[in-house]
Amino acid sequence: MSDDDDIILADLNDEDLVAQMFDDLYDGMKEEIEEGVNILIERGWEPYKVLTEALVGGMTIVGADFRDGILFVPEVLLAANAMKGGMAILKPLLAETGAPTIGKMVIGTVKGDIHDIGKNLVGMMMEGAGFEVIDLGINNAVDGYIEALEKEKADILGMSALLTTTMPYMKVVIDTLVEKGMREDYIVLVGGAPLNEEFGRAIGADAYCRDAAVAVETAKTWMARKHNRASAG
Amino acid sequence: MNGWDHLDLQCLPAIWHNHPERIVPAIEEAVAARRGAYDRIFVVYADCGTGGQLQAACETLGVQMIPGPHCYSFFTGNAAFAEACDTTAFYLTDFLARQFDAFVWRPLGLDRHPQLRDTYFGNYTTLIYLAQTDDPVLTKTAHKIAARMGLAFEHRHTGYGDLAQALATA
């Protein structure tokens, strides 16, 4: 996005540094993002402000360009990896300061399935949008999902599958939530190449998300509904 | 092909496998454009990531298609593949072995960002080359691809599996 070979991040004022971090995120420059985060923290920025104004702000541009077909999966993976570098610095500080999140998501690829590119993209884009994400990794059985949802007091369950043979397992998880009387406690989002909206509806998910950008928008919409319901109640 | 002179073959772009959402509308268009000229039309795409939508479209169009989730499955034989499917395996066919860079490596950006290799393939353990033909050069190519991906290599000769029977009976 920019020719920044000669830029000394520490020499930039806050506004220019944040603008430069947007560029560095876009270009997937992990070390520069880590350096930028450290500089802002040293200048006395609250960790939550660094997260929202520098990282989330930058990833919003990445997400929009991904949605609009300007950026593609490899570039988004690199951007997300850069953000992850910044998040690794911020996470313990955010926990210390009790910073708010806009929602908490437990996410994982279902049992029997090892494919995680889409799931990782969703997780990273959700973090980039300000959600807290608990990533269970691949090959998750129903007990693992339920244990994590309860332990983490999550708002959202995200399940991913790439195989036609493994995607029916999502229904096993949702049916178990229903059996345990927990289904209404969580927003359930599903995704993966062989899925579609019809499948999402048929298994009782709240929404099928065709890509990571849609997942973020859908999660925000459902969280707003959840808050509205809570306020009305 | 097989000495058959009663059929015409209409090839469609294989790269649509990287964009499954393009397959169904293109098949609908191809069938609509040719249906007046033929007694029967047979679609030789499997589901190929369309999430059942190709099957639904073929039923609406009144044409048959080869059953199965993808070519790895119907080349192996759908029943055998379902039984022996290894989720930690990355599969190649003859076609993909020949076109690996154009269909996998470059679309994933690995020519520009080789550091993403393990992000993409880190959960796989083995590359299984499902060979339709007995071609030592292609086998060597597949073996080299496995090495580039950091995976163990396995060669399985499948021939054309269910495809041969499906075409013979279509």
Please give a structural write-up:
The complex is a heterodimer of chains A (233) and B (170). Chain A is of the alpha/beta class and 233 residues long. Chain A contains nine helices and five strands. Chain A folds into two domains: 96 residues, Methionine synthase domain (Methyltransferase, Methionine Synthase (B12-binding Domains), Chain A, domain 1), CATH 1.10.1240; 129 residues, 3-Layer(aba) Sandwich (Rossmann fold). In chain A, α7 links the parallel β3 and β4. In chain A, α3 runs antiparallel to α4. In chain B, 29% of the residues are buried. Chain B has 170 residues and is an alpha/beta fold. Chain B has two domains: 52 residues, no CATH class; 75 residues, no CATH class. In chain B, β4, α8 and β5 form a beta-alpha-beta unit. At the A-B interface, α4 of A face loops of B. Chain B: Pfam families: DUF1638.
- Strand line-up in the sheet with most strands of chain B: 3-4-5
Quickly count the domains of chain B: 2
Tell me roughly what share of residues is in helical segments of chain B.
40-55%
The secondary-structure element order of chain B is: HEHEHHEHHHEHEH
Q: Report the major sheet of chain B.
A: 3 strands, parallel
What is the string of SSEs of chain A from the N terminus onward?
A: HHHHEHEHEHEHEH
Number of H- or I-type helical stretches of chain A? 9
Identify low-pLDDT runs of chain A: none
Work out the number of β strands of chain B.
5
In a few lines, what is going on in this structure?
The complex is a heterodimer of chains A (233) and B (170). Chain A folds into two domains: 96 residues, Methyltransferase, Methionine Synthase (B12-binding Domains), Chain A, domain 1; 129 residues, Rossmann fold (3-Layer(aba) Sandwich).
Characteristics:
heterodimer; A: 233 residues; alpha/beta; Methyltransferase, Methionine Synthase (B12-binding Domains), Chain A, domain 1; Rossmann fold; 2 domains; 5-stranded parallel sheet; globular; B: 170 residues; 9 helices; 5 strands; 42% helix; methionine synthase activity (chain A); methyltransferase (chain A); transferase (chain A); cobalt (chain A); Cobalamin-bd (chain A)
